[in-house]
Amino acid sequence: MPIISYREAIRQALREMLKDPAVFLMGEDIGAYGGAFAVTKGFLEEYGEERVRDTPIAESIIVGAGIGAVMVGARPVVEIMTINFTLLAFDNIVNHAAKIHLMSGGQVAVPLIIRTVTGSGNQLGAQHSQNIEGHYAMVPGLKVVTPATPADAKGLLLAAYDDHNPVFFAEHFALYHTKGEVPEEPVRVPLGKAAVARAGTDVTLISYSRMVNYCLQAADQLSQQGISAEVIDLRTLRPLDMATLQESIHKTHRAIMVEEAGKGTSIGGDIISELQETAFDDLEQPIAWVAGAPVPIPYNRTLEKLSIPSPETVADAAVKICKGRTRRVA
After folding, report:
1. Which residues share a beta bridge with 195?
2. Nearest residue to 314 via CA among 265, 258, 252
3. Does the active-site annotation cover 230?
4. pTM for this structure?
């Protein structure tokens, strides 16, 4: 398979979707400028302004217009420049896109795709460095997707196009330059199915988005200490694939939830709580939680780096949870 970047994988998925004449893209600076992260660079010249629409700086109106368009048969793909700005459209996302299907008695579907960029670590300050995709994963009626690899970025976006529900698609800015094998064909990756990114036997590392890469780096470090870590990439935060997590814990008997968002401000606590209920008999000890600091992200580079997990902090937590432990005999 060709090796391409995460950015190019998104571009390929959008091109495949634009084969449908009902699909058009809309968002701030996605046309003439080519997108804040260059995902739609060249699209305006290729598809024209009817298919690639620059919008005013008005996030609530952008999402509201997308909802209205999709309700009458169009298939807009809305881009909000960063996840921080989705807060300005929170009412339309949470109270309208997520609920219209139910409140219309199933008469109206809202298969709207909202693409946005999440993540910290780029010295953009507290208001532009949030990881709040977990907030949206707590909203019934929305599906929330957080791809970590180029292949998943393409396959999950295509699956979102096939879905009849609103999909909140969060792309981490730090992943755009990463590369991996991606099928040339429009292969779908099913929503709601986690992936075993690395098999292991001693501890399960559960994560999503950029932190999956950090967990894989931590697993490499742990292997040098004789610890075999299994890495689970959630891929979607809603729906969650709890069965894959339970199966992994049944094998390893230990688990760590790893996420970039601040502890207590994210979805990690909910995942841990459900696993404590459903996989309790398989656990040797409580599930550990490695997460960002529950603070506004600092602008200072050193402090910003300290506010989010690193491969080393993940590895240290795994050593602690595995040290001196032996598996129980069933």
Report:
1. 233
2. 258
3. no
4. 0.95
